[in-house]
Amino acid sequence: MSGPAALGVLEGERPVPACERAEVLVSRPLSDRYRLLRFRSPVIAERARAGQFVMLAPVTESGPVLPRPMAIYTRDAAAGVVDIVYGVVGAGTTALSAVAAGETVVVTGPLGRGFAIHDDTERVLLLGRGVGICAMTTVAQDLADTPVRVAAVLSGRHDASIIGADVLRACRADVRRVTDADGTSGVPAVRERLHRAFDVDPPQQILTSGSERLTRLAAQLAARWRATAQVSIEAHMACGLGYCHGCAAGDGDGTREAPLVCRDGPVFRLRT
Amino acid sequence: MTTRIVDAPRGREPATPSRPPADLRVELGGLALANPVMPASGCFGPELADLMPVDVLGAVVTKTVFATARPGNRTHRITEVSHGMLNSVGIPSQGAAEFRRSGLGGYAALGAPVVVSIGGLSTAEYWRVADELAGAGHAALEVNVSCPNLERGGATLDTDPRAMSEVVAGVVARSSTPVLVKLSPQLQTIGDAAKAAADAGASAVTVCNSFPGLAVNPARREPELGNGTGGVSGPAVKPLALRLVWLAAQAVDIPVVGCGGIRSAADVAEFLVAGATAVQVGTATFAQPALMARIVAELPALAARLGVDRLADLIATLTTRPKEQP
């Protein structure tokens, strides 16, 4: 997404991950483009911090070789379950869509560094597009029972392709939808709308995922409002832990490797 | 009934005596391993200790260490291909001195013998890495001779047996531990390369590194990987690697470490029968991080199923000789 120069590595502890064969409880379409998969993992549900991800692979002899990184959409520590959302785009996700409830998947997680919400933050703005929204829903989960106000702009091709609105509303977030179909998702229109809505009482933190254009907008808005911005980015991965070095977030600086999305991210500080 | 049980002799053998647990130990050119399973370089890190008991492995193998720090290749670095993966990570390295200072300890703490993979873009670089690591406490070195060699126009070192011999002999002279040499699969004559490594003093050869490959994105008219081509690994290459192991094992007297698409105990048996003394597991760990420990746990049952008391008795036992000459 953004070049390495724009990304800063966040501080903070990462919980110890677990690897297990987890029972699939739900596997169904969530919208016209995306599917939801719920699996049982009390350990991951309890440990996962907002913005973390799991590596997930179906248990098949002839299926895909590599696991796929999946943002944690929601987790319920009391019920011991984790939801992820994915689009069926290639062989890996096609194989995943064939896994039925009652079957198992190999899951490793929670992985990576999630979003960091500052102690003095009173208002958070989420800017997400498509499946990228699913990387930020856990932030709203964490803030649901706090005084922090959460506003979200959800962008998609059309109304039916926007996901996460119900989860965010259930977490008391103020949700605005913008779509390509009704012409409201263009960056100038979104920018104008956000200026009007938040210039008087701006958020202290802007979190974004799923769109390079929205990432640039997040940086601009952060500068305007003297806020900080964090971005969750996607990458091809193999190990998810850092040892394979497959997911560098850029091309490095000649001797040093760029941060790894799996180990140092997937959430990075966006330098503004 | 009660009386008979009380009267039963203590410690009596069961009516149908079971075999004692199989002996899993193998000997790798002076390196005694508790069992033949170790990771392939680049497909393992101390991070995996959170997810599996690492001390059950025969050995652990580090990512290839170069003399100086290097950032690795452009992104994208990995992609899935048919029954395998293609990678061109480009081996980022912190450099040998820094690895010795801050990297090696993480492997040494895992409780299994540590094999340090070393690389170089020139003969002198390999030797420098070996010098930097002298006396560092590792159990063995594995020389990655599949690196592009800048003195030979970017060709990999093992395409020139004389050049490879020079590198290996120099590393052996600088090292007090066994030296393994990991060969690339693109050689016309893997047997000659294995012989050259053995003659230069190698204790064992690892066969083989990933296979050169290309993935194409037709919409963009571009390779999928930032570096263009990469190395194919995973189940797709298993029969290719098995053949090379079989050829190499016939060409040399030193042990062969088999590597290529292994993802089960049954796969381990195939490599041992074809001539390998030990095996490396690579790509399969990505989808199943605890796989190597599971394979080790399954080895006794595997030995029993194949009717051997010592797993090493499987090595090079292929009876119907394929017609191809090494």
Automatic annotation (TrEMBL), chain A:
Residues 17-117 form the FAD-binding FR-type domain. GO terms for biological process: pyrimidine nucleotide biosynthetic process. Its cofactor is [2Fe-2S] cluster; FAD. [2Fe-2S] cluster binds at residues 239, 244, 247, 262. Pfam families: DHODB_Fe-S_bind (PF10418). Keywords: 2Fe-2S, Electron transport, FAD, Flavoprotein, Iron, Iron-sulfur, Metal-binding, Transport. GO terms for molecular function: 2 iron, 2 sulfur cluster binding; flavin adenine dinucleotide binding; metal ion binding; oxidoreductase activity. FAD binds at residues 92-93. InterPro entries: Cyt_c3_hydrogenase_gsu, Dihydroorotate_DH_ele_sf, Dihydroorotate_DH_Fe-S-bd, FAD-bd_FR_type, FNR_nucleotide-bd, PyrK_electron_transfer, Riboflavin_synthase-like_b-brl. Binds 1 [2Fe-2S] cluster per subunit. Binds 1 FAD per subunit. Belongs to the PyrK family. This is Dihydroorotate oxidase electron transfer subunit. It comes from Prauserella cavernicola. The lineage of its organism: Bacteria, Bacillati, Actinomycetota, Actinomycetes, Pseudonocardiales.
From TrEMBL, chain B:
Signal peptide: none annotated. Pfam families: DHO_dh. Substrate binds at residues 63, 87-91, 144, 209-210. Residues 24-301 form the Dihydroorotate dehydrogenase catalytic domain. Residues 1-21 are annotated as: Disordered. One of its GO terms (molecular function) is dihydroorotate dehydrogenase activity. It comes from the Bacteria. Catalyzes the conversion of dihydroorotate to orotate. Belongs to the dihydroorotate dehydrogenase family. Type 1 subfamily. This is Dihydroorotate dehydrogenase. It comes from Prauserella cavernicola. The lineage of its organism: Bacteria, Bacillati, Actinomycetota, Actinomycetes, Pseudonocardiales.
